[in-house]
Amino acid sequence: MTADRAPVLLVVHHTPSPPTRELLEAVLSGANDPEIEGVTVRSVPALGATIPDVLSADGYVFGTSANFGYMSGALKHFFDTVYYPCLDAVAGRPYGLWVHGNNDTAGAVRAVEKIVTGLALTKVAATVEITGGVDAAARERCYELGATVAVTLTPG
């Protein structure tokens, strides 16, 4: 973050289903809460996110479905693409994570956490794990996730 630009929160997601899309919308609503000022929120699908996107961001929220006990292939491709070029350059930056699965999210969470540990990102909010349908409580948890990570970037 520099004095001449607002800090950027990059939301990288793979949201192919209505439930994961609903959770993304809740994360974005929280990150864009009107009480959080001075933060630019960018939402980029995992298959479209680039190295410059990651390097120019000041914090991150990652979202994925849990597929066959792992993160989505799209989010894995994103991490494969940006990992080494961004290694060391993003150390210490804050992140949050949400994962949606039909019946299990543990493997997906574990895989993402290994990667972000390697990048030396700083977890600033509890991981949101949702299984099954999306209800008001799940949307609220994702709203809080987006808001929490965004507020860590506020100037001052």
From TrEMBL:
Signal peptide: none annotated. Residues 45-125 form the NADPH-dependent FMN reductase-like domain. This is Flavodoxin family protein. It comes from the Bacteria. GO terms for molecular function: oxidoreductase activity.
